[in-house]
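Model it.
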Amino acid sequence: MKEILLILSLISITSTLLCIEVGGHITQNTTWNPHNNPYIITSFLYVDSGVTLTILPGTQIRCTGADKNDIYNFMWSGNNQPISKMIIVNGTIHAVGTARCPITFDKYQDETDYRWGGIYMYPGAPISTFEFCEIRNTFFCDYIPGVWSLAAIAFQNGLLSIRNCLFENNYVALGTGNLSMDLPVYNCIIISYDGTFPAPFGYATAMTIGASGPSSTGGNYLLTIASCYFTGNPFFVYNFEYTDVLFLNNTLYNFGVLRDDAEIQRPNYSNSSSYGNTIINGSIDWSCFSATESDIVYSRRNTLIKPINLNPQNSHLILGAGGFGTNYVSDNYLSGCVQVKTTMSNATTSYIYNNIIDNNYESAVLIFENYNSAYQGGHIRFFNNLVRFVGDYQYPLIVKTSETSPILYNNTFIGYTILFRTIGDSDMVFENNIIPCTQWSSGSVSQNHHPLLINNCLASNILPPWDMLDGGGNIVADPVFADTLNADYSLSADSPCIDAGAYRPDLPEFDIRYHKRVVPGIPDGPRSIDIGAYEYNSAYIGGIRGYVNDSVSGLPVDCVKIEIIGKLPEYSDPRGCFQYPSGAGNYTVKASRWDYDDLIIPNVHVTEGEDTVLNIPLVRTNVANDDNTQSPEPTDFGLANFPNPFNPTTTISFIAPQAGTAKLSVFNIKGQRVNMLYNGLLSKGHHSIVWNGLDERGTAVSSGLYFVWVEMNGTSQTHKMVLMK
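Modeled.
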């Protein structure tokens, strides 16, 4: 018979305190509060199906632990009941603390080597919520013979909301192999200590998250790790099966410094992207990985710093790209013992551009490898990068290739003495680069493959005829930078690199600063291009910048995805700010985050050389209750606008009952269409679009009555709006 074990006892320390010992089955909705602190779990605690355990702010939970060094007793001792206890959830836990009064989960014993078993979510369990919780000192238990709970919070098809939590000194913070929905992990702190767990387990891990297969709707589930802080973890996340991962605005400090094989991810049938992260003193591969040829992934606007290689056994910090699809590595800053590395395993295409790399590592700063010698498709393009050697090594090397043929163009290299080393079949092309090298190193290269130099500014004309081909246009000269003392490597007015480059059809419209790159010459004639990463005397291409805030509180909203069709997304930073160098044009801008309604802003005009400023208020999404009951589908679109009357802008909101193609238009009182605000695919749920009171020609309309009309999947609805000037 299931029963709740509630044993009151007195604990004598410096004073007499009231505590509650708990174990067994919770069979009805129960609330724990701080007035009964601490709750001591003395046997396995089960939250039964259909039951919600609510834990109030400030509540302390202490679980019986065991010595982690005695693996047998810790995991399997006596009647399939380990000494170390845990919480097993088939219902729901609603644990929402506050910043000042967090909920704490920890071991009961004070012994240093003691750990408890963690929290396990059964397959099919409803949504559980953990906010402002602190979870410490977990290992894992064999809660069912042969089935392990491997994390502080382990979930098998269970659903989680995880925000503002602290995970400290756990073997694994979060883990699952059966993800069943998109999962955001937001604003958490994960602190782990290497070497604190016994063999054969050994090393702590931040996360092990994956899915048993694609979602029922097709594609992979999305794991978003956003605005989190990690330190001390030898491994980060691995086993990304059928899970697409976005690392967004995270900070990693002293990460994996005690292991030479630490890694950021090990994806399988999954892709990964990273944006806006800061990594300091790590020893890891921080990369984008494309799992299929259709994947488009990116590693952008990250900062990677490793001042020196403190331990020769340590790997250096690597910004990489690999896989099968299309990878974009751009706008990153790397400093110290760092490298850029691409790994081609099939038809991989990698674009590496607009990065600043300050390297002090003695080996090559750029490594291009191919794991498949039979590789035929894909390519590597490395352009618009500033690469400096800032160490004291005598012979720093720029490039090392193995069975790849990258094309490097319009880069500026500073301080390097040796250009490249090639292994196997490799036909590198160097075009429009500033290259200070005085030595060329060929390595073991096939006699049928030769690097090619075209229109470069060189420090030496030593070109071994048996290896390197001179494609013409190369000059041996001082590039004459603007201000090297202040690290300004743009060109001076008397630089011989001005207009000395060769136009390439794959050259983007911008340089490393997003200034205009391609300068038209005679109509339909030659175009003037500068050598190096900087175009002389050119203007900013123009773009969109702005601020994202919560519509109710006015506080900044970080991690908001800002999208323009056909371009890579940008994201808002911790201050809610974003910068989008889009170039001139008219754009429809979409802003989205997992817990806010999508907002679509049409007719955003960008003038060349200028930024258009957008202030974007987002409305928080109404989510399902914690018992996982779903709101009924709307009987109509719920079409509305606010404010109404308005001047000059209004936000139009509606609900899409299901995914499909949607049209949203504004008509005047005569039935004439004024503006088409949206025409395209939309996901199920709430959406918002801003109308700025302009017609399709960008002209302000007059005061009066207007109708907004939405049509989707054969159903339509209209709504009245009043523009009052």
